[in-house]
Write a structure and sequence with these properties.
Oligomer: single chain
Number of helices: 13
Number of strands: 17
Order of helices and strands: EEEEHHHEEHHEHEEEEEEHEEHEEHHHHH
Strand content: 5-15%
Length: 505
Amino acid sequence: MSSFSLLDEKWIPVIHFDGHVSKIKPSQIADETISDLAYFRADFQGAAYQFLIGLLQTTFSPEDNEEWFDYWDDGISQSDLDKAFDQIKSAMQFGANKPAFMQDFTKLDGNALPISGLLVEAPGENALKKNTDHFIKRDFVKEICPHCAAIALFTLQTNAPSGGQGYRVSLRGGGPITTLIMPELNKPTPLWKKLWLNVIPLDDDKPRQFDESVFPWLNTTKTSEPPKNLSLFPQQASYCQAFWGMPRRIELDFEQTKQGKCDLCGATSSQLITQYQTKNYGIQYQHWRHPLTPYRIDSKTGAPLAIKGQPGGLIYRDWLGMLTKHDNVEAAKVVFIHEARRLKDNEHYRLWCFGYDFDNMKARCWHEHTFPVYPALADPDSDLEELIALALELSKETLPILRKAMTAINKQSSVLDIAYWKETEPAFYQFVKQLIDQKDNPEGRFHLLANWANTLLHYITQTYDKAAFANPDEQLVTSEKISAREKLLIDFNKLKYIKKIKNTK
């Protein structure tokens, strides 16, 4: 298979405002008729957003917010993007000839692996050997077209979980959460503006040359074999390598291709890729901070730790840390930049959060969540964040009380925690909006906090009563159930944050 340019090839599926779907080359994102990307897999959709944001950030980043607003107001032309992207043509070649996009610079000599291994949910080599691929079976994807191979490769390198000895995780660790600023769903917005919302100004961090310091596949991989286990730190590369991290040493087999239909997108191709090779001890990234990801600061080392996917996905318990600095979690840099821009219609944006939940090397689930964005929280003279944090802490304190009561009557459930957070979420955001409306009214704010406490109390008592007393086959109400309910009420009223709320009046 001959190489082609990811900048010249029409390989990215998009949907237009009139509903028709087409494929475009990257510079065509400037087309105002394009509504969104149109990938058939959620992880590809999220990765493609990051790919295009990475292109803009690397080659077309504004120097300051003033320049950012110039493009936001006046638009971006395809000719501007063609000129900018032309600077990195050598890095965007995809095919057998090296250097090749996201593939190791060196010829790899290893065992051929099925191409399905590029998909993070596929069973690993060890699982195939031991026949432990129970839930996601082997051979579900045997051959894929070059367009799908390119985005699958980028998706894997961007999200890479631990893959066994020496198989490095992504630049942000395995399964990082990505947070993107997005317009409201009911507000028609062209794709380029959705991307531009997530491009930050770069001055000193703007690449001066487009070599392996930005795109690591342009030269020999800086490997991490023992005993040295060398790492790559931010000071040793370009800031923009954050978008192009390449922890895995991979080489696609462009010689053993087939003709037929792609097992992923269904397109007919004469160059279906069926296998690849890989080698361990690729780049080991340390202490990087990606501008699209929130971080927790390690209390012992001070190192930034990217927020990862978790069972049940993100919930409103996590919301404040996604938008501000809260509970040792700091929002993604792009969120703070967005707040500083103070767009005229700043009330009409949301935070799109997505990522994999990995259990070591296994993908358990792909999660997406949308959080509201409230500009009022960015006011440095307001105590709204403090009051909302108080309400969140009360939510966290309340859940163990419910767990304890349910355990006392043998009604504990593995879904109890997830249900608690999901089912109280609408009431929480209603409370937040009301709190913002009453931000200058101390008396009103106290009543809202008290109402939130009552909402939580109502929820846990309703949940308990349904579990304890709703079964018609249980004729007698036992004293143990009544005692457990009384204890639930007593424990709730003793909570530290109940007392704090009473003291806010």
